[in-house]
Automatic annotation (TrEMBL):
Protein name (record): TIM protein
A biological process term (GO) from this entry: DNA repair
MF term (GO), any: DNA binding
Keyword annotations of the record: Cell cycle, Nucleus
Domain of life according to the entry: Eukaryota
Alphabetized InterPro entries for the sequence: Timeless, Timeless_N
Protein's organism: Hylia prasina
Amino acid sequence: GLWGALTALSPQDWEQRQEEDTLLIERILLLVRNVLHVPPDPTEEQGVDGDASVHDRVLWALHISGMDDLLKFLASAQVEQQWALHVLEIISLMFRDQRPEELAALGQGTAGAEHGEDTRELEALRQRELAEKRARALQRPSRHSRFGGSYVLQGLKSIGDRDVVFHKGLHNLKSYNPDLGKEPRRGPR
């Protein structure tokens, strides 16, 4: 009855809704709030450990009916701000029996397993990438740079009263000759 009437109103129809539709929505939200507000009765709920409580079964029924999606829509839609307090109260009653530590641990349990799996996948991808990089490095021809560095020889003057700049490696310094690298001058025959 009431739930069918509420779900029959699509979000587009809600913009043109009548006053009786608004009253109907408010009554449904108040009914859901009142149902969730009923405190648990331990004498009535004597089930086996692990059995769902009456509150949990009500929450499951709300989920199956799609009421949770409707609550999400009412909470997030800009034009539906008039229902914000009702929705907030319903959501707080939904989590009434839960302790924040348990909810956080429950979320971390699945997230932790997924995080561990993601970490393993990332590590495997990183190892594969390193292996490919090594293989590419082995395939490349090795080119050695002929640049051994430049050094200034202080105390040894070149042209223009500047220090000599030596462009070979330091191990060649012992055999330094100012004429190194110059073409020998050939005399006439």
